[in-house]
Amino acid sequence: MGLSDTLAARFDVESHGSDVRTELVAGLTTFLAMSYIIVVNPAILSDAIQIEGYGQGEVFQMIAIATILSAAIGTVVMALYANRPFGLAPGLGLNAFFAYTVVLGLGIPWQTALAAVFVEGVAFMLLTLVGARKYVIQLFPEPVKRSVGAGIGLFLLFIGFQELQIVVPDDATLVTLGGIFGNPWAILGLLGLAFTFGLWARGITGSIVIGILTTAAVGWGLTLAGVFERGVITPETLPSAQYDITPLAGAFVDGLGQIEPLTFVLVVFTFFFVDFFDTAGTLIGVSQFGDFLDEDGDLPDMDKPLMADAVGTTAGAMLGTSTVTTFIESSTGVEEGGRTGLTALAVAGLFVASLAVIPIVAAIPSYASFIALIVVGVMMLQGLVEVDWDDPAWAVSAGLTVTVMPFAYSIADGLAAGIIAYPLIKVAVGEYDDVAPGQYVIAALLVVYYVLQTRGVIL
After folding, report:
1. 212 and 364 in contact (C-beta within 8 Å)?
2. Which residues contact 349 (CB under 8 A, 6 or more apart)?
3. Quick one: CA dihedral 428, 448, 132, 330, positive or negative?
4. Residues of the chain where predicted confidence (pLDDT) is lower than 50
5. Is the Cβ–Cβ distance between 338 and 27 less than 8 Å?
6. SS3 state of residue 320
7. Where are the transmembrane segments (predicted)?
8. How distant, in Å, are the alpha carbons of 74, 114, 429 from that of 283?
């Protein structure tokens, strides 16, 4: 029996109406669609993670390696345990929450933030093992679950616009439009963004990574041609290759000893909430493309892909990166015919192979990397169509969830606003029986937390 026959038998490819070649092509397609995270995740996390004795470029490479390894681990579990064609990697939105809200905003050490991700992953694993998913789902208001993706999308858009210097600080209005066409950094970012949106609109596979690499190549071309000096639109110096991640891996252990209980619980809660519902929503959404759902609209044996997600998150925290989640870009591979875990195994193998380009990723300018945030942010806004805007409780809860995230620069604060608002409006319109007891409890606890937090009693 050849390798092809062995793989076909191991993943039961024929009974899923597929073949080995189709599965491998689907894996390549999914990888190209989601591989931008190899560059974008370290671009975000390296703003918050600083390691004594190492420059930002070296830390960037460490995080890139952690990103690749955590993606490979989670996706291998998805392949071998769940036998589903889904790719996993550190998720956009949660890495921004990790860096800009938890570490830079709240002043929590990055090691402690990794500890929160680790605890969230373990909790996710335990709840999945005991089959408690349906009980957890009941605790959260439906409008918050439906709108959280769009809120994260706006959060990513706001960060991306700032990083490209399209939006800049202003004393009078807090933010304003930057001097784009007097700023080569912003010009290149804007042109790269337009190019990437064009590729995406035409349905080009890997449009985001193509946009990032093309924009970076233009920046380097202009620098090497002498139009700009080094350090203007390209890094002034490039670090040597850094494959040693021991200063990063295992740092979560130190973080476990630096916990402020109430704030730590809120951070874990936010990581868990977003990871849980983002993964569940992505699994259902991608499964629709592959006709994997049963007659009730559920994914059979859903606990298995959820476990893969939890294992990826836990492993990622141990290696030194933020929450791992199932990528919606997996739908591209499913559309190519991927139906089994062999697709996911191909994705994992390609992630491992990408370790060879680690020395190159630090050469990609930030304006090229952050194009991805704006493109993905726009894609995530489609979640707004799932909100019942005619229902007052839905409108207020979802509206606050979506808008507070970018305005407060925090996914956690947006979630809290929506969770608190839902029972208040339901009571106001006399529909208090529609609110589960657990939803009242969570809302009350969040009110207490924010009273203490905004009065400076806790961090």
Report:
1. yes
2. 27, 72
3. positive
4. none
5. yes
6. coil
7. 20-39, 59-81, 88-108, 114-136, 148-168, 180-201, 208-228, 264-286, 306-328, 340-361, 367-385, 397-423, 435-452
8. 14, 25, 34
Q: Helix or strand or coil: residue 20?
A: helix
What distance in Å separates the CA atoms of residue 417 and residue 398, rounded to the nearest whole number? 9
CB count within 10 Å of CB 442 equals 20
Other beta carbons less than 10 A from residue 189's beta carbon: 29
CB count in 10 Å sphere of residue 322? 34
Q: What is the pLDDT of residue 196?
A: 96
Rounded CA separation 234/222 (Å): 9
The pLDDT, as a whole number, for residue 131 is 83
The pairing of strands 324-326 and 174-177 is unpaired
- For residue 22, the model assigns a pLDDT of 95
Check if the beta carbon of residue 7 is closer than 8 Å to that of residue 20: yes
pLDDT at residue 28, as a whole number: 95
pLDDT at res. 205: 86
Q: Which two tokens stand for residue 310?
A: 């939890």
**Residue 107: closest CA among 252, 345, 267:** 267
pLDDT value of residue 110: 96
Task: Please give the pLDDT value at position 318.
Answer: 97
Give every CB contact of residue 394 below 8 A, 6+ residues apart in sequence.
142, 143, 387, 388
**H or E stretch covering 89:** strand 88-90
Tokens 């050490």 locate to 109
- Residues 144, 319: Cα–Cα separation, whole Å: 31
Q: Are 94 and 270 in contact (CB under 8 A)?
A: no
Reported pTM: 0.88
pLDDT of residue 191: 97
Sign of CA dihedral 59, 63, 66, 72: negative
> In the prediction, which pLDDT does 410 show?
86
Distance CA 341, CA 79 (A): 4
The distance of Cα 326 from the centroid of its chain, to the nearest Å, equals: 9
Which tokens go with 427? 């009571």
How far is 416 from 423, CA to CA, in rounded Å? 12
Distance CA 216, CA 32 (A): 17
Q: Which amino acid is at 318?
A: M
Alpha helices in 202-329 (DSSP H): 207-224, 251-255, 261-290, 303-319
